[in-house]
DNA sequence: ATTGCTTCCTGAGCGC
DNA sequence: TGCGCTCAGGAAGCAA
């Protein structure tokens, strides 16, 4: 499932493959996948800039249109020049004037492509917390956020209003490497522990971006390639941790949590 | 205000 | 072989 490193990898792939291309149109093959929120129906223009905010992909065009893509769990943006029928669950497609296209493939259909007049996309993004790889994301910021919440620390790390872009896999890995139990009430964490989380978070996310993300099942880059960071996971989906302890799998807020009760306190 | 449950959806994997 | 069940989960919506 695409989290920050996977979305970042997709964005980098888009910059390489579709920058400057003129959009001929966007086709929607499943009702509700493409939502055009614009006030007028003008040209979509050329792709000027591609970026990311949390898990949202932002594509700005020369006609001041912003295309916001959220992959949710199984969404993929695959670049294609062949025109061949290579997608089993194609929900939408961005067509370029030169005949190439971006296929939006999404098995579970939760993903969305929204088209906004520039500026109007802000409403969807304003609730997001700080970017975990930004300078502003300090141990003090995290501690302040955790102090306000009694829910388990794992749940708070997944809250997009606190950290933009973290998901289930990286939250588990971060807590494991920081040696903190996912069951701890967020407001019980000490300043030193928040510091460890911030440190491990930076380390893991940067490393995962270098490895083009994590592919458990569905995630693929724009070039339809898997990531490699799954080879470096230490708890998610594992039976034993590096020290040989048994890893427990529990449910928290409806999601599976993997952790080592011996190494994480 | 905060928290957690339900919903959306399809395919894989499992037991019988 | 095939049926039915459970599980995977990001985020919105809702209820307590």
Describe the structure.
The chain is of the alpha+beta class. The protein is built from six helices and eleven strands. The strands form three sheets. A five-stranded mixed β-sheet has the order 2-9-5-4-3, covered by helices on one side. Strands 1-7-8-6 form a four-stranded antiparallel β-sheet, with helices on one face. Strands 10-11 form a two-stranded antiparallel ribbon. Strand 10 and strand 11 (about 255-260) form a beta hairpin. Helix 1 (about 5-20) packs parallel to helix 6 (about 190-210). It is globular. The protein starts with a helix and ends in a 6-residue tail after the last strand. The mean pLDDT is about 95. It binds a DNA duplex (16 and 16 nucleotides) through loops.
């Amino acid at each position: 499932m695409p989290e920050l490193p996977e979305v970042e990898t997709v964005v980098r792939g888009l910059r390489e493959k579709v920058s400057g291309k003129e959009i001929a149109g966007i086709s929607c093959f499943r009702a509700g996948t493409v939502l055009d929120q614009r006030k007028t129906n003008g040209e979509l223009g050329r792709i000027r800039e591609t970026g990311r905010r949390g898990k949202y992909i932002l594509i700005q065009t020369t006609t001041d249109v912003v295309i916001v893509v959220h992959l949710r769990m199984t969404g993929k943006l695959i670049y294609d020049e062949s025109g061949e029928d290579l997608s089993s669950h194609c929900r939408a497609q961005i067509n370029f004037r030169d005949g190439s296209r971006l296929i939006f493939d999404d098995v579970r259909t939760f993903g969305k492509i929204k088209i906004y007049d520039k500026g109007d996309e802000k409403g969807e993004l304003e609730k997001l917390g700080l970017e975990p790889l930004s300078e502003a994301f300090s141990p003090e910021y995290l501690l302040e956020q955790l102090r306000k919440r009694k829910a388990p620390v794992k749940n708070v790390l997944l809250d997009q209003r606190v950290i933009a872009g973290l998901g289930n896999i990286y939250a588990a890995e971060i807590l494991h490497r920081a040696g903190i139990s996912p069951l701890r009430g967020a407001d019980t964490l000490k300043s030193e522990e928040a510091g460890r989380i911030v440190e491990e978070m930076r380390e893991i996310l940067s490393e995962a971006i270098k490895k083009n993300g994590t592919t458990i099942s569905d995630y693929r880059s724009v070039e339809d390639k898997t990531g490699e960071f799954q080879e470096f996971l230490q708890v998610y989906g594992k039976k034993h941790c590096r020290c040989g302890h048994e890893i427990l799998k529990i449910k928290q807020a409806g999601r599976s949590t993997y952790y080592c009760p011996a190494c994480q306190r």
